Amino acid sequence: MAIWNSGIGTYLKQETTLFEVMGIASSDGQYISTDNRFPVDATFADDAVIGIATGTVVSIGNTVNVSVGNSITVNQGTSPWVVSPIPQISLPPGYGQIHKFGAVPEMSQNTNGTIWDENDTIYPWDTISAGSQLEVRVVEPNNENSTSTDLDGDTVEIQGLDVNYNVITETVTISGFSATTTNTFYRVYRAIYANTADIANSKRILIRVSTTTVAKILENIGQTLMSVYTVPAGKTGSIMRLDVTAQGTATGSFKLYVREGGTGNFVVKHIAEVNGVGGPYQLTYPIPQSFPEKTDIDARMHTLSNNGRYTCTFDILLTDN
Question: In this structure, are 242 and 189 located in the same domain?
């Protein structure tokens, strides 16, 4: 482009005041300058070394997207600056957490039951409290009396508590449609299925004491969905958040039952009415509700006029006593 200028502010003939000027503009017509820098994408090879001369100013715009494989090392003279991926947030020593979530497939109308993988039943606390080795049994989805060997060679990890209420975890390998733990479990609060193909279980998996089911992995789910938990020995469990949902037009009366210290009767510690149309019931405790070691927690639903599927989730902060 051409511009003109003169000391007297008047155009002079014979091109004595004309100058050719080169300029660069962005695609939207904005002139590129130190205040409006040109956008640049740069790709560097692995282990590339980038040198910046002394006195060079490197300016970064408003938004920068950086994908880091492992880490970036920036050397200023002999002093390295290391820019590493942001680590996961971890709790300080003496603290832990557990995220419990469960769902009951389809409860009957006007029925009480625990929110877990078994319809219309209260969780069998007396059976599991007796302590026993557990049998893992693979059955057909629509006929739990019919066994299946389709999952032979796959594994099930069982999480629970021992006779002293200490956390124990055991992984068993299914063979001939079943497997048995070597440990004796007094509580079970989670079981997870795994195989080498990284696909969900095509058959139903029962975890039983004798003929009583104490945990169940429904087909194509991959783990138990049981809203029950027991605070381990040496810990205090504080409920931080509680969520309850009802499917579609289903309605129900939710009750959080607790047996403090693992003895005596279960008593109600929270109650709420849920309606699927109204959306989830959510409670973030302004002051966490704390329970001592060995406390049993059982989330239950009493279905009303419209029945269906119900879920419950609660988050517990665990602190050392």
Answer: no
User: Model-level pTM?
Assistant: 0.73
pLDDT in tens, 138-191: 999 989 999 999 999 999 999 999 999 999 999 999 999 999 999 999 999 999
Q: Are 220 and 203 in contact, with CB atoms under 8 Å apart? A: no
Give the pLDDT mean for 48-68: 54
- According to the 3-state scheme, what is the secondary structure of the chain? CEEECCCCCCCCCCCCCEEECCCCECCCCCECECCECCCCCCCCCCCCCCCCCCCCCCCCCCCCCCCCCCCEEEEECCEEEEECCCCCCCCCCCEEEEEEEEEECCCCCCCEEECCCCCCCCCCHHHHHCCECCEEEEEECCEEEEECCCCCCCEEEEEEECCCCCEEEEEEECECCEEECCCCECEEEEEEEECCCCCCCCCEEEEEECCEEEEEECCCCCECCCCEEECCCCEEEEEEEEEEEECCCCEEEEEEEEEHHHCCCCEEEEEEEEEHHHECEEEEEEEEEEECCCCEEEEEEEECCCCCCEEEEEEEEEEEC
**Last-in-domain residue among 225, 246, 262:** 225
Contact status, residue 272 vs residue 215, Cβ threshold 8 Å: no
Question: Above 90 in pLDDT, residue 134?
Answer: yes
- Please report the pLDDT score of residue 15 as a whole number: 52
Do 279 and 213 share a structural domain? Answer: no
**Domain range for residue 147?**
124-225
What are the φ/ψ torsions at residue 278 (nearest 5 degrees)? -80, -5
d(CA 156, CA 133): 14
> Any idea which residue has 């929110």 for tokens?
115
pLDDT at 1: 52
Q: Calculate the alpha carbon distances from 319 to 85, 151, 237 in Å.
A: 29, 38, 7
CB distance 303 to 111 below 8 Å? yes
Judge whether 209 and 130 are in contact, CB under 8 Å: yes
